[in-house]
Amino acid sequence: MQAINECCKKVKKDYLKFFKKEKIFNKSNVRKMNNLKNFYAPISFWINNKCKKKGNTLILGLSGSQGSGKTTTGNILKLILKKFFKKNVFVISIDDFYKTLKARNTLSKNKHLLFQTRGVPATHDINLVRNFFSLIKKKKFKKIKLPKFSK
């Protein structure tokens, strides 16, 4: 428990600043700190232990419905893992792998109008996903370009 308290103390300022930056005001600071102590910090310790055991790149996935907090959770875990555990971390979203608007428009003309929107089956660039995960699983790389979807 002492390690959890040390972690919370070290990341508190950046953690609370994250909520302000993201304009997340729906919880009191007391509740946010309780979430840090009882949820985010313990999960971060678990992730750190998995990294130690695995010894190389660890890939974690979060799933949930739209708006459930996957990106927020991923970014909070990233903050803790970088600040307290000194881990190199990046967060990527399935949204970052959508086909381009041009490609989706072509699909919508040839297949169905729904392809103009994001989220329906076949709107993700599967080759981009495969290539991305293949690259990050390699043990030695200095830089990698992360895809970032723009609405």
Mean residue pLDDT: 87
Q: Please provide the ordered H/E string of secondary-structure elements.
A: HHHHH
Structural domain tally:
2
End-to-end Cα distance: 42 Å
**Strand element count:** 0
Largest sheet: none
Give the strand content. Answer: under 5%
User: How many separate helices?
Assistant: 5
Cα-atom radius of gyration: 18 Å
Structural category is: mainly alpha
**Global outline:** globular
Portion of residues in helices?
40-55%
Identify low-pLDDT runs.
Answer: none
How would you describe what is shown here?
The protein is mainly α and 151 residues long. The chain folds into two domains: 2-91, no CATH class; 94-151, no CATH class. The chain contains five helices and no strands. It has helices at residues 2-21, 29-54, 70-83, 101-110, 126-137. The longest helix has 26 residues, at 29-54. The chain is globular and about 60 Å long. The mean pLDDT is 87.
Ordered list of secondary-structure elements with their pairings:
Layout: H1 2-21, H2 29-54, H3 70-83, H4 101-110, H5 126-137
Helix pairs in contact: 1-2, 1-3, 2-3
